[in-house]
Amino acid sequence: MTNDMMSFRALVEKAPDADILRDMIAFATARMMEMEVGALAGAAFGQKSPDRLAQRNGYRERDWETRAGTIELRIPKLRKGSYFPSFLEPRRMAEKALTAVIQEAYIHGVSTRSVDDLVRAMGGTGVSKSQVSRLCEEIDARVKAFLDRPLEGDWPYVWLDATYVKVRRNHRIVSVAAIVAIGVNADGRREVLGMDIGLSEAETFWTEFLRKLRRRGLRGVKLVISDAHEGIKAAVAKLMNATWQRCRVHTMRNALAHAGKSSRRVVSAFMATAFAQDSAEAAKAQWRRVADQLRPKLPKLAGFMDEAEDDVLAYMTFPPDHWSKIHSTNGLERLNGEVKRRTEVVGIFPNDEAIIRLVGAILLEQNDEWAVQRARYMTLETMATLSDDAIVGLPAMVI
After folding, report:
1. Of 33, 184, 230, 347, which is most buried with the most CB atoms under 10 A?
2. Nearest-angstrom CA–CA distance, 283 and 315
3. Is the pLDDT of residue 267 over 70?
């Protein structure tokens, strides 16, 4: 033990700052493997013991990808029996899902060369259908329980958005929409509410998705934030007794499409002055002034501003402390960006179940991270002002 401590101290003192964490992990895992193999063999390396159960048989090399970088592992082998490091067994749910999707694609013969390379990089040379089936069943059960869980309490704010992935259907490759909903509850906590997949963002698809959320208990919604997709707008108007907020970022992009390239920066600055106001009334007045100033030279842009006014400024009728988070879908788009990054590794999904498995696991992972965050997404004091309960909505009394 003393020699081990001296070796560890020397490692810390000599390693450069950039590599010290990776080297520390490598040192610790090497010691862990030696201890585990020693327990299996019945004796430590080089030790003579009548209780020895197996002889060592060299090492096999394997790269281990960690957040600190790639660790080059030398995994001990035994002449009798087998050994696999215990710390490589547990994986995060999304990583298991990714493995399952890639393996399933591999088995179905739809993998590209890049997927095949990834399977080999994971240490696999081939997988059986039974192995894939067991892995998929484990993940599917947890993902289904998460996506079908009851939604309790009120959810004043709900964000809706979609991202597109490719899947094989009837021997064709098609693009499908993976739609996601997140919300903030009355306690100011953010959660993933649900997801689904469909061929398009048609009104019928969004309507059925929102109905599923309502059947699971979604209620108390006061503001729905999304882009201006007609399917979303129609479904929200039909099913949700709530205000609709048109994403401010998307609105600006749509507006600038009506302005020439040379004038976009100036137009953007003019329109932003409305968002800098302290009240909804002042913002609307400024929005109209900007529209009237632009009308002689850019009539289409002015008409667009007239149409978008109420929806893009809807967030200003809610508590000012919430404005920075409810004026756009940026928070949900960051989550969808992570979904896109992880799904691009697969490329083409073998079936719809594989999409739900991977995307659902990513959403479950994100939801767990939000759940353990100490700080609320929105404070209890500011959320209380949204409550329909007169007692909850009262300001706190100083005693």
Report:
1. 184
2. 11
3. yes
pLDDT above 80 for 4: no
Query: Regarding beta strands 157-169 and 56-66, do their DSSP bridges make them parallel or antiparallel, or are they unpaired?
Result: unpaired
Cα(283)–Cα(79) distance, integer angstroms: 77
Q: What is the token pair recorded at 239?
A: 């099913």
- 54: Cβ contacts below 8 Å, ≥ 6 apart: 40, 41, 42, 78, 79, 80, 81
Which residues does 85 contact at the CB level (< 8 Å), separation at least 6?
A: 29, 32, 33, 36, 73, 75
pTM: 0.71
Torsion over CA: 305, 306, 308, 312 (sign): positive
d(CA 335, CA 178): 12
Weakest mean pLDDT among 60-69, 131-140, 149-158? 131-140
Contact present, 32 and 85 (Cβ < 8 Å): yes
Cα distance between residue 175 and residue 201, in whole Å: 11
**pLDDT at residue 121 is higher than 60:** no
Alpha-carbon distance values, 49 to 23, 35, 41, 42, 60 (Å): 32, 16, 10, 8, 25
- State the Cα–Cα distance between residues 144 and 159, nearest whole angstrom: 21
Q: What is the mean pLDDT of the chain?
A: 83
